Amino acid sequence: MEAMELLPIILYLLLIVLVVVSIVFIVRLNKVIDKIDKVVDEVDIKVKKLNGVFEIVDRTADTLNMISDKTINFIVGGINRIFRRKKKGEDDYE
Description:
With about 90 residues, the chain is mostly helical. The chain is about 95% helix and about 0% strand. It has 1 helix and no strands. The N and C termini lie far apart (about 130 Å).
């Protein structure tokens, strides 16, 4: 056998090995992608469940913020009324 006859045989064998390895790799990759898809679906379900909890927390925080703003405005308004009365009283004496 000469080198010219041996070279195509080696190339064909290498090509067959490459095709077999590629097929095995694709099959394993497909299994991994299926597992990843299942994990992503489970995470998506859990995130949807948590969205309701986050909405409740957000609404509660907004309500508490509104109540505290109204309370502070009431207190500041009362303090302002007290100081306005004192100034008016001082102006009457002049």
